[in-house]
Fold this protein.
Amino acid sequence: MSFDPNSKSLGSSSLDHALLDSAFLEEVTWNEQGLAPAIAVDAANEKLLMQAWVNREALATAVAEQRAVYWSRSRQKIWRKGEESGNVQKLVEVRLDCDGDAICYRVEQVGGIACHTGREHCFFRRLKGDEWAAVEAVVTDPESLYQK
Amino acid sequence: MSFDPNSKSLGSSSLDHALLDSAFLEEVTWNEQGLAPAIAVDAANEKLLMQAWVNREALATAVAEQRAVYWSRSRQKIWRKGEESGNVQKLVEVRLDCDGDAICYRVEQVGGIACHTGREHCFFRRLKGDEWAAVEAVVTDPESLYQK
């Protein structure tokens, strides 16, 4: 995905455009939409928090701002995790996998809630027989997350 | 992706075809290629092991055989993890995320090596400045992994 200097999402960010030419971004194998899966892991206890997506701009912004930043496919814009809920993911380190097509953000999860449902993480449904059963408790009322 | 009863890959597996109509597969939001990202986590210590992909057949086969099974995009076939190296991932549980478009396999990693490079996991490159530096040791000579 080539960088569009007129992109609204970039226009509203504080990203130094030169960062988009960084060599580390070239090492990532981006898919046909210019995306790679990004997996957030809690650096305190290694727990899987969530899986989302990054493009070049999201990854560059994450590194520049030292927080987890994703590309929202539904909203088609940069998504700074916690920008609405306050549950920011502070970046501890960024990892790349062996074939270069997946990213891991190791983070400090502010507020302890990664999921928009108010749970600690997003993988709260467990396969039981033929059904996915919610097996993790809601810690925070999700409505309260977005009323700040 | 609809199921092709003449699929060669399915023909070579022991999967009961009825499994492909299971309700739990309908709950997954498959992408335009019929795939979803699958993240393997070590159930013993929660560590992120790898990220790969599943389609309906791979996920159904994993559940039927209680081992991590993926869809190899490069080989366009079902990939039973460990079928060549012996480093099977025994399935402890399967999780689905909040928006239903990502899978987590919690596994017992036989042999302790998830990565084809001979490392414990695939996310062994850490961003340092503008470079991805390998920061995890090779535990097993990768050539020996595939000479069995």
